[in-house]
Please model this.
Amino acid sequence: MKAILKPLAFIFLFIGTLAQAQEKTEAISVDSLNKSLEQVKSEVATLKNLKITGWVQTQFQYAQSRGVANFDGGNFAANSDKRFMIRRGRIKFTYDGKNSQYVMQLNGTERGFNLVELFAVATDPWTKSFSIVGGVMNRPFGFEIDQSSSVRETPERSRYTQILMPNERDMGAKIVYAPGRKSKLHGLRLDAGFYNGQGIYVPGTATPAGYAAGTTPLLGVNEFDFQKDFIGRFAYYKSFNDHKIRFGIGTSHYRGGNMYQNNRSYSQIVTDSTGAKNWKASDTSKTVYKNKTAPRIYYGVELFFSIKSKLGTTTLRGEYVTGTQSGQSGSSSSPFFLPSSTDTYVRNFTGCYTYFIQRIGTSKHEIAVKYEWYDPNTKVSGKDILGGGKNNLTSADIKFTQLGFGYNYYMYDNVKFMLYYDIITNESTGLAGFTKDIADNILTVRMQYKF
Model:
């Protein structure tokens, strides 16, 4: 009997041990599984906060003549009047944290790769109306700069925008006041900040002063002087009647400048004994200009109105800007890089654009008409620019106007086709190359894919 019981006891003990081991294994497996699930949930929650968007704009352009200079995607090569190009190839990463945000946008085209923007946002946890933003971002001036190129109804921003604030973005920091939807002040927005002032240089931009044509300076933000520029914008945009009627108003201010490179400055236009207008050098007997600030001061206003009807959505939009711009004899553009040691020319300017946009009923078709001008020197007109060594006014003082006609077809939610013809007119002068209107009209055919 004992001989039988001993083996049975061993068998039962072995089975019990296996059962306990299985229970422990199951407990360990369930615990590990729970931990793995929690980790997956955390990672999924993180990914839910990350948004990736992007768009590519591939286009064909046909210019009225070869080698024309333009603001519709950059100058044509000397012997070219037709070109294929990728105007923009963007990918944007946006991560939304608790009362915070991180944004990075990159651009890639056949001309190279570059950083577009990189900034962080921190919002107050109490009212959620005040935010601090720091990094490379859009300058907060007017509507057009802040409007994404993926939704713009025309190929490019206005000429004056590209001259005064090229490539739209700059390095700096700002404070934003934007009340939420529950606030009675919802729709109001105030941006105010300080920036380096040089902007961000990207592939395809005209070679800056001080560099030989055809060379490629370092890309990115290049701080070159002590001056920091203030930019502020106050706007109010509101919608009514279930978004069928929308309107907006705003005003912007830019106050900054560039460092004088020498003690020669020209800010006055005088008429000589022959009746010709000329730049007059500023008196330096009592004033030293070198290493001080040459002014860049802009004032802007914006208006917007949109209404939905049986005809479709009709939109009117416009901006007007005026002020003082310091540049060089042959250019009024804001510099990306420290100019070579040249004289400073301080000009009074005006610029404006107006849009008429009509979406055809509820269809996928839209027409757009845009008129704009940029007058870099309001103290002279075309007839005052004599050329031939008769006075010291240059092509940088010529007024340009543009009238564009566009058609947009929103084929799918993420595919848009654009056909746009830009009629560009310059003042007639006595200056060689500008005695009559330049043949520089441009046709743009574009396909955009956005995700």
